[in-house]
Every structure is written in structure tokens, then in C-alpha cells.
Amino acid sequence: MNERVTINIENHVADVRFNRPDKMNALDKEQIQAIAAAGEELAAAKGVRAIVLSGNGAAFCAGLDMSLFQPGQDEPVTTSLVERTYGNSNIFQHIVLLWRRLPAPVIAAIHGPCIGGGLQFASAADIRVVAPDVKMSIMEMRWGLIPDMGSFATWRNFVRDDVLRELTYTNRIFSGEEGKELGFVSHLSEDPTVKAMELATEIAGKNPDAIKASKRLINALPDMNEDEILMMESEEQTKVGGTPNQMEAVMSFMQKRAANFTD
């Protein structure tokens, strides 16, 4: 329980939890480093077909720990924000966008406060399952800052322009229930983790090659024109079609049995 991020993999589903409950999973230097390490571990893990991301304790993630604003912090916190230390990202952008970039779909199960950086983590997930009474906010304007953990790259895909402007400019808090109307929430559930695990289990029972190919295609959509989309569809289908896993998907359906896919 001393680990800042816990990972438990069972039946091809990774149960990943922010584990700083005494601080509502707020992001200090150690938490940032632990999340980056968890991303590397999950990217290298064999047989992970779906990921559920949640937070231990009373919150999903309450954003940045205020200690990060104090002088004397060691790297990576003091690294220049414009320095690209993780591909096209800095460390803050990387720990959020890694959830979008992982091969397996990520389902965020959200309870309690989900503000600032917490909402940015949630926004990078493929699917968000949220308790109706969750408190959500694009909080950065409270501190005279802008959201800068990579979420403009994800919000452009599912948040309406005027909604994003209002919430960014005002940093007002909204509920999970309102978040469903605004586009931030995929599903409302009184027990988000249970619902997220159900979805993850269903996804883990599908052809993992086709699931990962679909995620690659969906991730690439905002940056492609029609010609590029059509070509990528064809390329991904060529990789998947006729493979043992694709044939197993057909046979298991025809024989009315659980599929036995290989990773």
C-alpha cells in the first residue's frame, strides 16, 4: 500500500489505482513519477486488453498538490515546460496523454473530486464512468493558469467549443450529472468502479487485435483527412482480417462459446 500507483492484472483487465488517499490523490513530484512509471509498465505488459483507472480513498484526483508551486522542487517539476522530454510532450502532458496512447482501451471510474489535473486524466480515457454527485472542474484559472496537461488535445474531440470556453474561463465546478450533458461523462453510475469493470470485462472478451486497431484509428481521426482515414481503415483491416484471433471471433460466435484469443 506504499505504492503511489497500484496495478493488479486479472483476466486481461488491469485495475489501476492512484494511491495517495490521504491527499485525495493530488499530484506531487512522487505521484507524477509514479504515474509515468505505471504508464511504462502498462505499455510493456503482455495480455492487457482493457484498463480501469480509478483513485483510492475519497477522490479520483484533486489535481496538483500546492507544494509544486513552492521553490526548491527537484526535477522533473522544474524542467522547462517547453522542453519536449517525452516525444512531443513535457512530463505533465505525458502523464495524462499516456492513457490515450496505451494500446488497450482505458476506462476511468470516477468518484469524489475530479478537478484540474484530475479532470485532465479523466479526459484522456477512452470511456468515463462517473458518479452523479462527482465534483468536476477545469480548475486552473483559479490559480491564474491555463490547463496545460495535454487536455486541449483530447477536449477538441468531444467538448463543444462554447462549453470548453465557459468552463475554462470561469473554472466553475459542475456535477457528474451535468458533465453527462456537457459531454465529459460517458456513463453515470452510483458505483463507477463496478460499471467500469463490467465494460472492461466485455472489451477484454473481444479480439484484442481488432480492439487495439480500432483505438489506433479513433485516436488518429482528428488529424487525418478523408483519404488518410480510408487508407488507415484498409491497412488496419488487412492486418486483422484472416488472423487466428479474427477466425476465433467468428468460430466462438458460431459455436456459442467464450472466445480463446491469444495476445
Strand-helix topology:
Elements: E1 5-10, E2 13-18, H1 29-44, E3 50-55, H2 91-101, E4 106-110, E5 113-115, H3 117-124, E6 127-130, E7 135-137, H4 152-158, H5 161-170, E8 174-175, H6 176-182, E9 187-188, H7 192-204, H8 208-220, H9 226-240, H10 244-254
Parallel strand pairs: 2-3, 3-4, 4-6, 5-7, 6-9
Antiparallel strand pairs: 1-2, 7-8
Helix pairs in contact: 1-2, 2-3, 8-9
Instruction: Write out the strand line-up for the largest beta sheet, numbering strands in chain order.
Output: 1-2-3-4-6-9
Number of domains: 2
Strand content: 5-15%
Q: Give Rg in angstroms.
A: 19 Å
Remind me, CATH topology of the largest domain?
2-enoyl-CoA Hydratase, Chain A, domain 1
Overall pLDDT score: 95
Overall CATH class of the largest domain: Alpha Beta
Distance between the termini: 30 Å
| Helix and strand element order | EEHEHEEHEEHHEHEHHHH
Shape: globular
Query: Based on the structure given, which CATH architecture of the largest domain is correct?
Result: Alpha-Beta Complex
Number-wise, the strands total: 9
CATH homologous superfamily grouping of the largest domain: 2-enoyl-CoA Hydratase, Chain A, domain 1
* Range of helix content: 40-55%
Low-confidence stretches: none
By DSSP (H or I, 4+ residues per run), the number of helices equals 10
Biggest sheet overview? 6 strands, mixed
Which structural class do the helices and strands define? alpha/beta
